[in-house]
Specification:
Length: 976
């Protein structure tokens, strides 16, 4: 049990570290608080109360920010874009909103654009007016099942009452790779692979002569040394450019807005057809709002997105991780000038080839590598992805106060279509393996082995075709009225539904066409009351429906209740805390029902078949007639039992919140504590509920059950300080979240208490405790037996026998720490604005601590014939036994060494400097005489600039995929 104590000790140490972090942040915030206080009076005279009085989007409507009760965060994107150029709609949102890390409180949210479920990539940042994050259950209750894990509301820009205005923004910049993986060259690889062979008692694979000739580099075609990260294959940088035009205006009868955009991005590859790799997209978004009568308004929106992606065949980045530098003598090119001139067959090959590269080379190949990613890029043609998206929605708003004061009605309908198809140009080609000889001191190719044949292709063909469709409709009655000047009542009764379907002409990674489209329908009701904006009460809920459940269980109620108290309006509080401008306390409780975690339809029904959906395979039976064998057939097996009581998964949540403005509105703090139970997650019950005979060779009778439960708890916060010193104004935002999870109930039975997932974090990483490397045979012989396959030798990793049974197997795996796949134990973000005269400096950062990762990709787990990275230079040998940090080399897959364990684990703690931008607003006096341009600003910015971490090099490196990029941009925006 020693390991269990150490694991608990490790958890305690982590908690202590987090407490120290909290204390450090507390000191920092106190200092910032004091700085803000010193400048409070000056700020008060220059800063309006718009932040307190503004209206923001919430579920199915808008509400004054002052009256928001839930865990709701808002970003004014239109204002932010004046100092923060960005492209992606959710760009760096974690630097502005506590609790958002790409997920909302650790769960995947519903994304709505103008109230319609759509993809985040369907809108660009330059088209967005604002983004609202609904985090708590009470704020998303009206969205029913679909929104039960949080919601992101993206609202686009619209026209306003003003003369015609045209704004044009143009950007161009460079994409510069941050870092490439580091691999051994060919001679080094061959030398160390020979060492691996000796370690395994095998004959060396490479001769000393081959290694020597390779190291000389005099004939790279016979003794290749591939470096795919060299200038021969990759450019120093790529480029990205875009231009956007916005046209807007209107009067009291009609308002209009149009956004036109074009983006072009090229690639850093320059081999073959890949030099033409590029992405080109065109966007148009337009909307019109019309007052048809005094009581009736109408609106319409239309969006078209046309995107073409051209790319070469072959996967170059996969080749960088898979093609060894010598790869059994493979060279991508065969030099024509090295061919034996006296051999007419070789000259005939050259004359008849369709693929003479640069007039100097044939394509290289091997019997076991006849085609490869490089030759594909050079000779086989290209692929063009054609993406077309069309979004359309209409709406109407009716003021029904003529029937009864405060009553209104609104409805929205949308149709979205996205199609993707590929145009391909595929050319067959031949490759050649050269056979070398040294004649009269010259190395020449005396013969070629040919693989494949050259062909012709003059027509493009249509490849994969995909199709997405989304339709939605919303209708709602709204009531809002104030009685006796103090009693404010508002309410909503709505019906909402949408359907999304995917179809394909082939079986794709998405699983082929949807047999059953995704549907969400619910009826929602919300009732709210406040007295003098001091005491608040809100009750919201939805009746949800799911076709995934049995007929009698398809409907459920999702209620929520929220209370609020603006304590700053109380006389006793004002007398004691005059520096507090506004202080509101809130609390909510909700019980939301959802089917998002029910992964398929008809799971409540039994399943039988020769090959069932649950994986059961029927046996074969044969007839016997008088002792002779006759015909037969396959038996029918049970693949799943029925459960007519299968029901919704429940999100049961309690939350308390605080929202305050201090020191003449110079400092704002928002914080939420949440405790969220997710109950009724599905399992088969084979470990704890049903006896073993329910799972036998004659089939599975196990049904799906609502059994597993999870717990999520945390605190999110956002702190914003706005101050001014002379002509220098600044604002600082600091947001974050402390987050913890626990599996409170699991269908599991283990031999040892430390193996149970119940009581552990949902994102626990399980693995072995490594105790270093075996130093000699005695060390292996006296240690517990490690059952991973293969023969153990000195230099292999040894693991702790946690349960003391003398065998190392899965029962010795322990909880090593949280991987933070949804949210880390602590995540945070920073945003800083400094303004002086016409200059504005803006910076964004984000980070997280407390997570655990494993170095378990092929770059680190080097075995067999895989490519050797530079990490193996610190390998174990008899000479380096006491200092080695890498296991011995082996030609096998090394299943013993390549297990998730403390040997390969690392802390994922990091801070990212995501963006820095400098903006200069040209003096307006320059345009006094201009009838065209009213004002203009220029800016430069850099993205993805820096990572601070103990594992910085690894975290900035991609393995087997395109590199991470820094982006340096120059932009200009003109207002006409």
């Amino acid at each position: 049990m020693e390991s269990s104590h150490k694991i608990r000790d490790g958890n305690e140490n982590l908690k202590k570290m987090m407490k120290k972090d909290i204390k450090a942040w507390g000191i920092l915030l106190t200092l910032l608080w004091k700085v803000a206080g010193l400048q409070a009076q000056e700020v008060a005279s220059s800063r309006p109360n718009s932040a307190l009085d503004s209206t923001i989007h919430v579920a199915f409507g808008k509400m004054p920010k002052r009256d928001i009760l839930g865990a709701v965060s808002h970003v004014d994107v239109a204002s932010l874009m004046e100092k923060n150029y960005a492209t992606h709609s959710l760009d760096n949102l974690q630097s502005f909103i506590g609790g958002y890390t790409g997920s909302v409180w650790g769960q995947t949210p519903l994304i709505l654009i103008d109230g319609i479920p759509r993809r985040a990539e369907d809108v660009r940042m330059v088209e967005i007016e604002s983004i609202t994050i609904l985090k708590d259950a009470s704020s998303v209750a009206l969205y029913g099942s679909a929104g039960s894990k949080g919601a992101v509301l993206i609202n686009t820009r619209r026209g306003s009452i003003k003369p015609l205005s045209i704004d044009i923004r143009a950007n161009t910049g460079l994409l510069v790779p941050k870092r490439y993986p580091s691999y051994l060259n060919a001679a080094e690889y061959m030398t160390l692979y020979n060492e691996a062979s000796r370690n395994d008692g095998l004959t060396e694979r490479y001769s000393a002569e081959a290694i020597y000739n390779t190291s000389l580099g005099s004939n790279p075609y016979r003794y290749p040394d591939l470096n795919l990260f060299s200038d021969e294959y990759i450019k120093k940088y790529a480029s990205r450019s875009d231009v956007t035009a916005e046209i807007s205006g209107g009067n009291d009868r009609a308002r209009y807005y149009t956004n036109l955009g074009m983006t072009h991005v090229n690639d850093i590859l320059k081999l073959g057809e890949a030099k033409n790799n590029k992405d080109m997209s065109f966007n148009i978004r337009t909307n019109v709002d019309v007052n048809l009568t005094k009581w009736l308004k109408a609106s319409t929106d239309a969006v078209a997105i046309i995107s073409d992606n051209n790319y070469a065949r072959g996967n170059f980045w996969a080749a960088t991780a898979n093609l060894r530098p010598n790869h059994d003598g493979f060279a991508p090119f065969v030099p024509i000038d090295r061919l034996d001139l006296s051999n007419p067959d070789l000259q005939a090959i050259v004359q008849n080839s369709n693929h003479i590269i640069d007039g100097k080379y044939l394509l290289g190949g091997l019997s076991n590598l006849q085609t490869n990613d490089l030759s594909q890029m050079i000779a086989s043609g290209y692929i063009k992805n054609k993406n077309r998206t069309f979004l359309f929605n209409v709406g109407a708003d009716a003021d029904l106060s003529g029937l009864t004061p405060g009553l209104s009605f609104s409805t929205r309908y949308s149709m979205d279509y996205t199609t993707r198809y590929t145009e391909g140009y595929n050319v067959p080609y031949a490759t050649y393996q050269p056979h070398w000889q040294t004649i009269d001191g010259s190395e020449i190719i005396t013969s070629l082995t040919k693989f494949g044949n050259d062909g012709n292709s003059t027509n493009e063909f249509i490849g994969t075709a995909l199709y997405y469709q989304t339709m939605s409709i919303t209708s709602q009655f709204n009531y809002e009225r104030t009685f006796n000047e103090h009693h404010h009542i508002h309410g909503t009764l709505l019906g909402w539904g949408y359907m999304r379907q995917f179809s394909s002409d082939v079986d794709t990674n998405q699983g082929g066409s949807d047999y059953q489209p995704f549907r969400n329908t619910n009826v929602g009701i919300q009732l709210g009351y406040h007295y003098k904006q001091r005491y608040y009460l809100d009750a919201s809920g939805a009746v949800v429906h799911s076709a995934k459940l049995p007929m009698d269980n398809r409907r459920a109620l999702s209620p929520s209740v929220t209370v609020g108290w603006r304590i700053s309006e109380e006389t006793f509080f004002k007398n004691q805390a005059s520096f507090v401008n506004d202080l509101k306390l809130t609390a909510s409780y909700a019980s939301l029902k959802q089917d998002l975690d029910i992964t398929d339809y008809y799971l409540y029904r039994e399943n039988y078949g020769n090959s069932t959906a649950e994986g059961a395979l029927g046996a074969w039976y044969q007839w016997r007639d008088g002792g002779t064998t006759g015909g037969g057939g396959a038996t029918v097996l049970a693949g799943r039992g029925a459960n007519p009581n299968l029901s919704f998964v429940e999100r049961r949540e309690f939350r308390v919140g605080l929202d305050t403005w201090l020191w003449n509105n110079s400092l704002q703090l928002n914080a939420n504590y949440f405790r969220q139970h997710t109950n009724g997650l599905l399992t088969r019950g084979n470990a704890t509920i049903f006896p073993s005979y329910f799972l036998q060779g004659n089939g599975e009778f196990l049904p799906w059950l609502n059994f597993n439960n999870d717990l999520r708890t945390g605190v999110d916060f956002s702190l914003n300080i706005i101050s001014k010193i002379g002509q220098l104004g600044y604002s600082l935002g600091f947001v974050g979240m402390f987050y913890d999870t626990k599996a409170t109930q699991r269908d599991e039975v283990y031999e040892n208490s430390y193996q149970y997932r119940t009581g552990r974090p949902i994102d626990a990483s399980w693995g072995y405790i490594a105790e270093g490397l075996f130093q000699n045979e005695d060390d292996i012989r006296t240690h517990a037996r490690q059952n991973f396959g293969g023969e153990l030798k000195p230099g292999d990793i040894k693991y702790r026998d946690v349960n003391g049974d003398g065998i190392i197997d899965t029962r010795d795996q322990v909880d090593l720490g949280r991987n933070g796949f949804a949210a880390n134990p602590f995540s945070y973000g920073l945003n800083l604005t400094v303004k002086w005269k016409n200059f504005t400096i803006f910076a964004l950062g984000s980070g997280h601590t407390g997570g655990l990762g494993f170095k378990n990709n092929p770059y680190f787990w080097v075995g067999g014939l895989t490519k050797y990275s530079t990490v193996v230079l610190d390998r174990w040998t008899e000479e380096t036994a006491s200092t080695a940090t890498y296991p011995r080399l082996t030609t096998t897959g090394s299943s013993n060494n390549f297990q998730n364990s403390t040997y390969w684990s690392f802390k994922t703690n990091r801070f990212n400097l995501n963006r820095v931008q400098l903006t200069y607003d040209l003096p307006e006096s320059l345009f006094d005489r201009s009838d065209v341009i009213n004002r203009m600003n220029i800016y430069v910015n850099g993205d993805n600039l820096l990572v601070l971490s103990n594992e910085r090099k690894m975290l900035e490196t991609n393995f087997g995929s395109a590199p991470q990029m820094r982006f340096y941009n120059l932009g200009v925006k003109a207002f006409f």
